[in-house]
Structure formats: C-alpha cells, structure tokens
Design brief:
It is built from 6 helices and 13 strands.
Amino acid sequence: MNSNWIYPDWPAPKCVKSLVSTRQGGVSCGSYAGLNLGDHVGDNIVDVIKNRELLREQLPNEPAWIQQVHGTTVFNADEVYGVVKADATVARQAHHVCAILTADCLPVLLCAHDGSVVGAAHAGWRGLAAGILEQTVSAMTHPTGQIMAWLGPAIGPENFEVGNEVQLAFVRNLPESSHAFRSHGKGKWLADLYQLARLRLLRAGVTQIFGGGLNTYRDSDRFYSYRRDKTTGRMASLIWIAEN
C-alpha cells in the first residue's frame, strides 16, 4: 500500500471504495508542503492543480468538490454542475465520487450495507451541532439500521479546546453530549469530536460506527492541522460506488 493514502478499515461492501489523502507526496511547498488539495487556502494554484491530478489517478472520476461553509446542506453528487455551497454529498450512481476537505474538522464517510448509496460529511463542531450528520443520513433515503459510518482524521480530544458556547451548543440539544467535554479551566473545555459524532449518528439511527482516533493535531508528518499551524493545506476524504 502507498503510504500517501489511508484506506479506511471498515466492513463496507466490495462495491464501495473509500480513500483518505495524507499530506505526504504532492508538490506544494512551505506551510502547504506535500499533497495540499485545498484551492482556497492561499497555496499556489498550479501546485494544487498538480496535487489534484495526483489524487485523480486514484479515482474513477473527478470528485464532486463542494464549497464547505460549516452548514447542513447536502449536495447530490449525481447532479453534475458547478461547485456548490454544501457540507456533505451523497451519490447513488457508480463512479460519482463524494469528497470532503479537512484539516482538523472530522470527515465522516457513510454507505449502505448493500452498496446502493454512499455519502461524505464535513463535521466540524458547527456542522455537528447544527445536524449535518443527521441531514446526510436523511439524504441517503435508506433504512438507517442498514447504514454504516467511518470517522476519519480529526483533531483529537486532548487538543481541541473550546469555549462555553460550543459546549452549550451541543448539550442544549443533546444532553448526553456533556460526556464528550472535559473541563479545561474556567470557561474552557476539551471536546471529543469523535464521541460527539457517534452520539449524533446514534440519534440518527446509525449504530455501526467505525474509525476515530487519527489525531491531525499530533501527527504533523501525515496530517495538516489548522489549529496547530493556522496556515496549512487540506486533506481529502472520498467515497464512491465502483459498480452497481
């Protein structure tokens, strides 16, 4: 296996393929060094295009890139038109690639047990609190008990410090979310994005949840981290149906 890529370890059906890029490989320099796939972070656009070409060699089609805005809009990747503002995509047609860019926010990949539909969601704290995972599961229009999810690289619970407003945004809506926060001084908390995502997925009816634990903040060799570096690149998490 090429170390530039992470292949999610989950019991997805054989027709479903998934892939996560790391910062290794690529042509970007300086703060973006490696395989930066974000075209909105200040990197040399020529380098980004080359990096996306390297990614494209791993895929059956050009990804359905979206402009992520920390909201709850879900885009249908089977509809081919320009980049739209959304924070999740779903696809039912073979070779239509759902893609999410992250550098600390949590990418969540989803698929149906029968491989008939896949999805990818950008789950930063704002999107999680607003319901992006519930919206993505709903957009898959599949029995929720037959959907599984994989949690990708994100900032770990030891490093994600947030304020009272973040803690309240979750606990107000889902009281058991309090278990995902650990006090870290007056008005400060350490938040566990993985646990928050699991709670939201469980509420949506998804019980088969895999992954979690790849800490972008602590692994500077493999991952970009906005919280760690501020000026940085982006990784991609992608999922598609290889055949119907």
